[in-house]
Amino acid sequence: MARDVAIIGIGCTPFGEFWDKSFRDIFVEAGVAAIEDANVQGEAIDELFVGNMSAGRFVEQEHVASLIADYAGLASLHIPSTRVEAACASGGLALRMGVLAIASGHADIVAVAGVEKMTDVSVSAATDMLTAAADREWEGFAGATFPGLYAMIARRHIHEYGTTSEQLASVAVKNHHNATMNPNAQYRNEISVEAVLGSTMIADPLHLLDCSPITDGAAALVLAPADTARKYTDTPIRILASAQASDTLSLHDRADITTLDATVAAASRAHEMAKTTPEDIDFVEVHDCFTIAEICAIEDLGFFEKGTGGKVTEEGVTAIDGDLPVNPSGGLKGCGHPVGATGIKQAVEIAMQLRGDSGKRQVAGEIGMTHNVGGSGGTAVVHIFSR
Amino acid sequence: MARDVAIIGIGCTPFGEFWDKSFRDIFVEAGVAAIEDANVQGEAIDELFVGNMSAGRFVEQEHVASLIADYAGLASLHIPSTRVEAACASGGLALRMGVLAIASGHADIVAVAGVEKMTDVSVSAATDMLTAAADREWEGFAGATFPGLYAMIARRHIHEYGTTSEQLASVAVKNHHNATMNPNAQYRNEISVEAVLGSTMIADPLHLLDCSPITDGAAALVLAPADTARKYTDTPIRILASAQASDTLSLHDRADITTLDATVAAASRAHEMAKTTPEDIDFVEVHDCFTIAEICAIEDLGFFEKGTGGKVTEEGVTAIDGDLPVNPSGGLKGCGHPVGATGIKQAVEIAMQLRGDSGKRQVAGEIGMTHNVGGSGGTAVVHIFSR
Prior knowledge:
2 copies of one chain form a homodimer. By secondary structure, chain A is α/β, with parallel strands linked by helices. Chain A has 2 domains: 5-121 and 215-237, Thiolase/Chalcone synthase (Peroxisomal Thiolase, Chain A, domain 1); 134-212 and 240-386, Peroxisomal Thiolase, Chain A, domain 1, CATH 3.40.47. Helix content of chain A is 37%, strand content 18%. Chain A contains 14 helices and 11 strands. The first copy, chain A, has a 9-stranded mixed sheet, sandwiched between helices. A two-stranded antiparallel sheet of chain A has the order 5-6. In chain A, β10 and β11 form a beta hairpin. The two termini of chain A are 19 Å apart. In chain A, 66% of the residues are buried. The mean pLDDT of chain A is 97.
């Protein structure tokens, strides 16, 4: 990496169902918060990256990078503004592009944001729009939806490793608990294993409460070269690694659907960059779009042996007071999942934790990780951060 | 710039209406051509960037970066693959991201591609999908389409500078002429000023033949650090500058709609990077989505005084044998405009010209430029190239 990069500002909207706010309202809210937190003027910003999956379909607006520069009041500066997209990993990509822009020397101060406005269409329309993150010709047209695809992964995990529905449910119970301590979370209520198992079956074995919801929200970061970051803040958060990987878009082309090879590859590259191992990571935000996804993630990231993710979750190892807190924010399940925003919101959470600003959900540690997935693993992005 | 970058491979599909080919067929065709032209194996590629405006709406497929890595046979390498989007400037953005990735030191060999499959929907549906590149709330919902927006620009240019319909038509006549010498062009037929003026009025003063068409196509480049490019090819094309700028998304927010400030800003930054002036540019591919757009472009890029673009075009200054050949490929008007592919196809043309491989449409010169616009100027990207 030519230049190291640090986070100097963070901003995040509440996540939820906001019928009184537009797409442009929510990204301005997050962006202004991040810029104010960074103590910079708009004129200091050299470049903008925006992660967004599908504003083209959710709000019939493409070209959102120009819209965002415009509504952030930066149009007269004519800064480069770029939308990046890899479905639900769009936010993670935006962060990585910001890192590349600074590392390249083409930019110094970069704002990166993620945004999605999903609740202005019907749930069935949203489900179809999200299916565009899978292979439309070989999965979508055959009737598969995301709950269906992750249900196949769960079925196979159960078959191979004896994972139980109770273990799946324990992921949701943990993340709802963490979300009760996060004022920005969509769901701030405790749930029980019994409640998950008693909720509507969506795609066997996944119940309603095994699934992350449809959500509006935005999050933003301001980045700077690490060697000048202390000019702006006393608590810069260093980005030790920024790694991204791809895989087949379709599940059926993979040797083993219980492992997301893109996650394995991205994590391996990230540890190489940061000169770390999984043992060095003190806490992690993973992509729990479904409960099974968190179980696969904590295995594929190398924290736990394959097949044991359900067991360790049930035992409390990944609880907020456990050995490895996973999703202290509440994750996608508790916070909600505005798909383009999620990858940035994960980084906001790690930055808050490393600053010691997480209040009731504060965890201890020096090194945090984020893990953001597109589709059923066609893309994965892993970042490692430290004070 | 930390490291200079060069083009070592180029590939482009024919542009046209291909009902017998799918989205995935056409990007594979362009990508394989570029990789073969670069004389590299797929395993050599470190990263992939894809410019695409609206596969989510045109073919109901988001997450196309993973799809493209997959169908290019690169899934098992798990390389990072990123889609970038700024409407019709998406291809130019993909090229710039490739430059940033190499300059940053995160990647050595990078493939960048642009693709759009537009003809699988009705023309009225496509027109609406393209309107998503304008401001949906303030322009699209009020009934504006792109021909309407550019017609307003043309009206104002006529009012301010006395530009004539014949001068507008002369842009289309020139670009059709150049396209007759380009085997990949969608329209390889000569047209006359009378034919343009006699064609259906779309949005006064723009006739049908003032408008670029709806097109399927893909184009790709392979990039390498400039200092190692000669390992792969005897004719590397150096990227002297890669600059991008944004502006207000809506026309009504601009002081003067006859000038695209994003073009002015991007060109100014590009010349600063390349240490050039407009006089140093020997030929240029500009974004002629409508005839008026080429007239504004050659003025805003600093080649001709404001208001004289129509006159110099009519006089033949920008003809293929003129002082400054503009759009020797045939431009968007003659070649067709698969929106995400256009920015990459422009660079393919400049590379062919600088290699001396352009056959009947070969022009002379050492330094070429590309100019790619998103929407009505919310984004502009300018690149400068030399042998």
